[in-house]
Amino acid sequence: MSSHLRALEADSIHIIREVAAEFARPVMLYSIGKDSSVLLRLAQKAFYPGPIPFPLLHIDTTYKFREMIEFRDRQAAAVGARLIVHTNLEAIADGTQPFAVGTQRCCALLKTKALLDALQAGGFDAAFGGARRDEERSRAKERVFSLRDPQGQWDPKRQRPELWRLLNSRLNPGESVRVFPLSNWTELDVWRYIDAERIPVVPLYFARERDVIVRGDSLIVPEQEFVPLLPGERPQRVVCRMRSLGCSPCTGAIRSTATTIPDIIEELLAVRQSERQLRIIDHDQDGSMEMKKREGYF
Amino acid sequence: MSGLLRICTAGSVDDGKSTLIGRLLYDSRSVYEDQIRSVRAASRSRTAGPIDFSLFTDGLRAEREQGITIDVAYRYFATARRTFILADTPGHEQYTRNMATGASTADVAVLLVDARHGIREQTRRHARIARLLGISTFVVAINKMDLVDFDADVFAGIQGDLPDALDAARVQAIPISALDGDNVIVPSGRTPWYGGPALLPFLETTDAVRPAAAAPFRFPVQLVIRPDDTFRGYAGQIASGSVSVGDEVTAWPSGAKARIARIVTWDGDLAEAAAPMSVTLVLDGEIDVSRGDTLASGAPHVGRRFNAHVVWMDERPLQPGRPYVLKHGTRTVTASAAAPLALNEIDRLTITTGRPIVFEPYAENRATGSFILIDPATNFTAGAGMIVEALPDTGDAIVPGAAERLAAAARAAASDRAAIEAVRALLEEVLA
């Protein structure tokens, strides 16, 4: 492993241990993607030979790819961590889905509200997430310890300065933090680490022939029945893979022939589109991610 | 040269800092086409050339609306030769605080200067802050050379007027045009009188990275890992130096000695480990060690009084004698300062802590010489300090007794709720 990856790993483990030492009830958000997989490995390393001293939490919108859910249950069992799965069942019963209520409202109910409810129900004062600053421009302004008010909201103008490796974990009543140990990692660092550490990832990241709806630049995997076919559209067989994982109706696949992790790394070195380009929810308004984060999203 | 270089950038408003960073990212192919497209669309309404590079870096809506940078942003880019983490610090509002934050982890500072205006007061201030934060390699990027017809005399004039704070530092002045790309990635044909490197090649090859591994061994204990009766290990990140199995180390502040029996990691035991690795150390003797203690070789300074340069980052000024929470390594103690300080001020103050800490001057060791001060009423990170020198402990003349401290904390709080919190926190500290 390169000295650069080793330094990133050491700093991330330091952050994870600080949280375990200084907060009463930490939890690790586990969203099944590549970043979560790295986070989980770092947590195993941080407390070895002891177990991971906090539970994992998955916010399940019920619209995740089927392969993701299978992978989640396998991984949690393999690592021996307690897994909490939370769904906003009320919103699902009301028929919430992106084509019925729009992506902004769907995210607000199934992700943000579900997350805030689950954090409150567990009494969690610190929640780890796998977000990276290189993902999106408002995330570039994010702290390692992202302070949230009692409603879970982020105020970018009221952030605490973070100097050296000294993290301020003191909270006022009702406040909590979101903790981002992968802040300084890039997409390429994540894949190189997965390669060096042989970390298991969801098979959706690897190219194969899949039935997809081709819509502009997007390849949509029609796993959910409510994804409407526009006039003239029908599923086609395309060799593709997922670069970023989310809900199947809102996350497009990319055309790719990368079937191994070294293939993916090689592809990334040449690719000219950003990782979140096919995440519809990032583009539904100006500053979408910042707006969602202000409301309590990760 | 290889590995990671951490850079911070500083400049006054309108010196073109965001444009330079956007240019570095764009020309090193570190931004993606969809990001460029969205910036092209937004550039039409503004007046910063064909592509407004600052739109890559200004991540918040308020920043894009007002055309200013509010907060520190971090950028990541890599070339075939090196990986870079760049802290982009705003040039105006709350600049001292942001400059200090960006500089605290940086190896090199890039100071932007507008060729038309020369070195300004703020440039001198930024240079001083960066020096205090321990940066010794500087690039003075003299920008907007296109607006002074690439005049060698203008460049030479500014070079002769560099801030005094840079006298003992390594300085590379580079004439650039961030907008047009001159001397950013490759040498410009429009500055034939300049024989030095372009900015990116300089950053790729500079040996500014400070080897923390060369300093004496310091290991602030983060956690005691004890999964069962057969294993007791001390988890932490090596702050400086290196350690081998068999080495004798001392636990401070107790002064108890033991030898390293094992260096444990998930990837297997190691014979030796060095900064900045995160490891778990097993000792051969039964000595009392807990979070906040430091395992060290040799004899670090252990004490409760020192002089430090303090940067104040809170709108509520530092009040002399008032108890603050001081975090140093993994140890949290109460502390008070002997003199006041207002927002964005920097001064050398005497600090007294409630319990001893294990420290060295910041100039010798960045990790054991740095601390933050937290306001116990708001829990805001209010100050950052760099230790200059130890002072003899003088008993309790400056730190009042427990009852006085509790009363002072309650009085200083803004609300009843804040008072309860402050007293609760102090009680924990006093009773610990």
Task: Give a brief rundown of this model.
The complex is a heterodimer of chains A (298) and B (432). Chain A has 298 residues and is α/β, with parallel strands linked by helices.
Overview of the structural elements:
The complex is a heterodimer of chains A (298) and B (432). In chain A, 36% of the residues lie in helices and 14% in strands. Chain A is an alpha/beta fold and 298 residues long. Chain A folds into two domains: 201 residues, Rossmann fold (3-Layer(aba) Sandwich); 79 residues, no CATH class. In chain A, the strands form two sheets. Chain A has a six-stranded mixed sheet with strand order 3-2-1-4-6-5. In chain A, strands 8-7-9-10 form a four-stranded antiparallel sheet, with no helix packed on it. In chain A, α3 links the parallel β2 and β3. Chain B has 432 residues and is α+β, with helices and mostly antiparallel strands. Chain B has three domains: 202 residues, Rossmann fold, CATH 3.40.50.300; 81 residues, Translation factors (Elongation Factor Tu (Ef-tu), domain 3, Beta Barrel), CATH 2.40.30; 131 residues, Translation factors (Elongation Factor Tu (Ef-tu), domain 3, Beta Barrel). Chain B is 22% helix and 31% strand. In chain B, the strands form four sheets. A seven-stranded antiparallel sheet of chain B has the order 7-15-11-12-14-9-8, with no helix packed on it. In chain B, strands 2-3-1-4-5-6 form a six-stranded mixed sheet, with helices on both faces. Chain B starts with a strand and ends with a helix. Classes of the chains: A alpha/beta (298), B alpha+beta (432).
- Strand residue content of chain B: 25-35%
Whole-number total of structural domains of chain B: 3
Low-confidence stretches of chain B: none
Considering the protein shown, what is the CATH homologous superfamily of the largest domain in chain A? Answer: HUPs
Question: Share of helix among residues of chain A?
Answer: 25-40%
Overall outline of chain B: globular
CATH topology of the largest domain in chain A: Rossmann fold
CATH topology group of the largest domain in chain B: Rossmann fold
Radius of gyration of chain A: 19 Å
Largest sheet of chain A: 6 strands, mixed
Spatial strand order of the main sheet of chain B: 7-15-11-12-14-9-8
| Rough outline of chain A | globular
> How helical, in percent, are the residues of chain B?
10-25%
Uncertain runs of chain A with pLDDT below 50, 5 residues or more?
none
* Number of DSSP strand runs of chain B: 21
CATH structural class of the largest domain in chain A:
Alpha Beta
H/E series of chain A: HEHEHEHHHEEEHEEEEHH
